[in-house]
C-alpha cells in the first residue's frame, strides 16, 4: 500500500524532493497542486518534470476517497459516505450556513467510546484514520465547493470517532489545514470536539493554537454521565471539568459544551440547574442538541417546551446557551446512521 500524499507536511515534501535529487521548492510546488490548485492526479502537476511526476505516481497514492453515497438536503447540507482503500466507509458532511460552509470530518472508522445515543459506535472501533485521510475529506469538500465558487470557511471535528484517541493524526491534520500555503483555514474557525479524554485535554492545552475546543458533556454529574457515556468511567466528570479549567487558565479560550438532550433522561429542570451550577464560573458556551430518535436505544426526543425550559434555566444562571439548529433533517442521518446502514447492507 503506497502512502497517501496528504499525509505529508510541506517540509516533508520538500525533503522528499531533495532526496530525489530535486531542489526543495519542488516540494512547495507539489503542496500547491494539492491544496491550492487541488488536482486529483500527479499527471496534472504540469510544472514538474515527467520523471518527477512518474516518481510521485510510483511512490504515493492521491485518491483516498471513493464516493459511495451522496445525500443532499433542501437546506444545502450534503452528506457523503466515502469508501477507503480497505473497504471501510466513513461519513463527511458539508453544512451550509449564512456565514459560509463548514465541513464535519471523521477521524476514526467507528468509535469505541460507546455513547449510548450514537450510531457511530454500534460496531465498535475498526481503525484510526491517517491524517491524510482526514485531510482528503476537506480537500474533496473544497473541490465540490469550487464548482459553486465557494470555500470551506470552517471545520468541525465532530464526525465519527474520538479525535483525542487519534491525537497525533488529528494534530497533523490541523497543522495541514491551517497552513498559510495550503487551504489556510483560520484557526478560530476550526473546532475539535472530544468526549473528555483527560490526558489529551492537558496535552492540547500545551499546543500553541487558537483552535476551539468542544466537550461532549451530555450530563450534569458523574452518575448520569457514566450511564450515557461509558468513557466517563475512565475519565470521571470532575476530572474532565478540572482538566478544562486548566485548559482555560492556560489558553484563556472559551470552551464549547455539547449537551444532547434525551427525552426524560437528562433533560429535566433539575439537570439544567445542576449543569448551570458547574458551568456558571467558566468562560463557556453550551450547545443544546435535541437527539433524534435512536430506535436501538428507545430514546425519544425532548419536547419543544422542555428544550426551551432547559435553555431558560441555564441562561438565567448566566450561562451562554443556544439550541443547535438542525441541519439535513430531511436526509435523516444523525451522525453514523448512513454508515451503519451501509454496514448492514454490506
Ligand atoms: S458521540 Fe462521538 S465519541 Fe461518542 S460514540 Fe459517537 S462518535 Fe464516539
Short description:
Helices cover 37% and strands 20% of the residues. The protein has 346 residues and is α/β, with parallel strands linked by helices.
Strand content: 15-25%
Strand order of the largest sheet: 1-2-3-4-7-8-9-10-11-12
CATH topology-level name of the largest domain: TIM Barrel
CATH class of the largest domain: Alpha Beta
Distance between the termini: 23 Å
Largest sheet: 10 strands, mixed
Q: Which class best fits the helix and strand makeup?
A: alpha/beta
Bound molecules: iron/sulfur cluster
Residues in helices, as a percent range: 25-40%
Explain this structure.
This protein has 346 residues and is α/β, with parallel strands linked by helices. The chain has 2 domains: 5-59, DNA polymerase, domain 1, CATH 1.10.150; 66-345, Aldolase class I (TIM Barrel, Alpha-Beta Barrel). Helix content is 37%, strand content 20%. The chain has helices at 10-19, 25-35, 50-59, 131-146, 167-178, 198-206, 222-228, 231-234, 237-251, 269-279, 304-316, 337-345, and strands at 66-72, 78-83, 89-97, 100-104, 108-110, 125-128, 152-157, 190-194, 212-216, 255-261, 284-290, 320-323. The strands form 2 sheets. Strands 1-2-3-4-7-8-9-10-11-12 form a 10-stranded mixed sheet, with helices on both faces. It has a two-stranded antiparallel sheet with strand order 5-6. The longest helix is centred in the middle third of the chain and has 16 residues, at 131-146. The chain starts with 9 loop residues before the first helix and ends with a helix. The mean pLDDT is 93. The structure holds iron/sulfur cluster (SF4). Residues 111, 113-115, 118, 120-121, 160-162, 195, 216 line the site of iron/sulfur cluster.
Amino acid at each position: 500500500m503506497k502512502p497517501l500524499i496528504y499525509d505529508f507536511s510541506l517540509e516533508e515534501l520538500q525533503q522528499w524532493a531533495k532526496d530525489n535529487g530535486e531542489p526543495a521548492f519542488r516540494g512547495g510546488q507539489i503542496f500547491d497542486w494539492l491544496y491550492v490548485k487541488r488536482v486529483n492526479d500527479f499527471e496534472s502537476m504540469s510544472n514538474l518534470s515527467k520523471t518527477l511526476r512518474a516518481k510521485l505516481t510510483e511512490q504515493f497514492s492521491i485518491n483516498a476517497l471513493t464516493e459511495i453515497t451522496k445525500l443532499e438536503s433542501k437546506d444545502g447540507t450534503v452528506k457523503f459516505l466515502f469508501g477507503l482503500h480497505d473497504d471501510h466507509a466513513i461519513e463527511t458532511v458539508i453544512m451550509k450556513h449564512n456565514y459560509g460552509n463548514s465541513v464535519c470530518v471523521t477521524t476514526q472508522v467507528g468509535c469505541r467510546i460507546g455513547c449510548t445515543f450514537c450510531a457511530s459506535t454500534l460496531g465498535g472501533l475498526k481503525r484510526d484514520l491517517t491524517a491524510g485521510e482526514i485531510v482528503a475529506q476537506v480537500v474533496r469538500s473544497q473541490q465540490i465547493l469550487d464548482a459553486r465558487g465557494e470555500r470551506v470557511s470552517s471545520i468541525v471535528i465532530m464526525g465519527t470517532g474520538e479525535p483525542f484517541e487519534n491525537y497525533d493524526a488529528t494534530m497533523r491534520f490541523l497543522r495541514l489545514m491551517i497552513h498559510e500555503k495550503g487551504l489556510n483555514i483560520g484557526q478560530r474557525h476550526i473546532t475539535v470536539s472530544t468526549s473528555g479524554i483527560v490526558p489529551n485535554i492537558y496535552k492540547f492545552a500545551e499546543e500553541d493554537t487558537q483552535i476551539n475546543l468542544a466537550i461532549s458533556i451530555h450530563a450534569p454529574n458523574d452518575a448520569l454521565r457514566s450511564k450515557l457515556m461509558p468513557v466517563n468511567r475512565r475519565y470521571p466528570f470532575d476530572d474532565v471539568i478540572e482538566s478544562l479549567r486548566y485548559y482555560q487558565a492556560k489558553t484563556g479560550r472559551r470552551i464549547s459544551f455539547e449537551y444532547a438532550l434525551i427525552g426524560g433522561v437528562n433533560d429535566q429542570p433539575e439537570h439544567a440547574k445542576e449543569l448551570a451550577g458547574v458551568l456558571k464560573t467558566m468562560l463557556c458556551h453550551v450547545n443544546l442538541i435535541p437527539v433524534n430518535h435512536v430506535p436501538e436505544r428507545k430514546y425519544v426526543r425532548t419536547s419543544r417546551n422542555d428544550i426551551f425550559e432547559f435553555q431558560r434555566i441555564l441562561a438565567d444562571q448566566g450561562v451562554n446557551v443556544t439550541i443547535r439548529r438542525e441541519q439535513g433533517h430531511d436526509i435523516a442521518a444523525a451522525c453514523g446512521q448512513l454508515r451503519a446502514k451501509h454496514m448492514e447492507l454490506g
